[in-house]
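Example (one chain per record):
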Amino acid sequence: MKTRSETSYSTKKIYRQKGTGGARHGDRNAPIFRKGGIYKGPTPRSHGHDLPKKVRQLGLKHALSAKARDGSLVILDAATSDGKTAALAKQVKNLGWKRALIIDGASVDEAFASAARNITGLDILPTAGANVYDILKRDTLVITKAGVEALEARFK
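Predicted structure:
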């Protein structure tokens, strides 16, 4: 919603102050006029607040340990693929992963990412993108060895 200072109309006084028999008015941007500004309308703003770094780090540690405790944490040597979605989908189905999150090292293998892009319930993140919400939302957490090393470095 635009205030009277943000609407695009002339700022010229619409008619003289006295002698017209009508009410006193300034410009057409006044809220009383059609296409005028909105008086005290909603102001779009964020009501979010940031958590301290140590609290975010603690939350990530708890999410990872919860997955390890449940037995839904899998560690792979490397996440590589020949770039074929069908082959990767078959492997995922054989492993029984319904909703899985794969956390790779600093960067994700492009062939693997393109193969996994169209598989429902399979998401891939680099280590920098690992977050509590995505980890807890998925049933299975899969981390590569490079991802484990990067997460350990992140916690130090």
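Caption: The chain has a mean pLDDT of 92.
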